[in-house]
Amino acid sequence: MKLSPLDEYPIHQTPAPVSWPATSDRNFYDRSYFNVLDRDGRFMALTGIGYYPRLGVKDAYFVVRRGDTQTAVHLSDAIDDDRLHQHVNGYHLDIVDPLQEIHLTLDETEGIAADLTWRGLFPAALEKPHDMLTDRRVTLQACRFAQVGSWQGWIDVDGERLTVEHDTSVASRDRSWGIRPVGEPEPAGRPDTAFRGMWWLYLPLAFDDYQLFLILQEDPDGHRSLYDCTRRWRDGRVEQLDGVRVTIHYTPGTRIPYGAHVDLMNRAGDRIELDVESKLFAPIAFGSGYGGDLTWAHGTWKDGPFAERVSFDLTDPEVMARAPFSLIDHVGSAVCTDADSQTRTGAGLFEHGVIGPHYPSGFHDWTDVAK
Fold it and tell me: What pTM value is reported for the model?
């Protein structure tokens, strides 16, 4: 065990240095995720940085979709003990004002560079804990907070500059830490059939007066293993919303949505309707390292400082055939209608995926698509 600068501060949670996780599980992680969403759908970016203390690795990614191309750069290196200065090679994340302002820069790497400043539109919100278990072990046990905001700055791709303004962008971010599969594949042992598939919907949306968070995870039968829905008003009120019923509008022949309709209820029993439209989408398994990504896995050791670039042609049927096996992030345009018929327009992340069967949606096996 080694000391780090953080050990100077009274923030310890276990009788060990701060950089030493309480668990010995190799899958312990500590990660930030951001998106950059142009409200008109001209482009979008997904990016993040993660630390994997039990694997000795830190890494980052930056994914840009513009037109029909999705391009990613991956960066990796050996972990260090100074967590106050988050960086992987030319990728830097500086906390200017905790929980409010962040400065993200990417030095030119394989033709991609960025200089972006995040500003929170509302306070960060702690989400419900997320747990997934098999018969033999914990596969996911995470604490996470989320926030909606906007960006100011620019992204360069091969000399083309994409300008990002606070009034033309919207974004969500999350910080999570805990246990989830990372690094190289582990020995399988006896096959574990506990995972039968999942249906997922995540909507962090910004409106003028409030931010709205909806998280749903369902198994193939439609049973909800994770559910949280709140409307967090600018004046500090937190309104629990219930009675959630979701209709996803899928593009025929795919599992890719072009929109969603959500019925909600406040505590008084008044009906609220939420309609979300996709302006642009990016499958997160195409370059960001999340489940289903064949090019990259978070926490993989790359023998020291490392960078690479990968691109995906989203008009290629062979490429898009992999999209149903991942979550897909969308630039979401939203309209919320209250019981008094007052409507508010908003925007944010529309994240959805159906991995495997989901009988309520009419998907009876791993290959079914919308009619």
Answer: 0.94
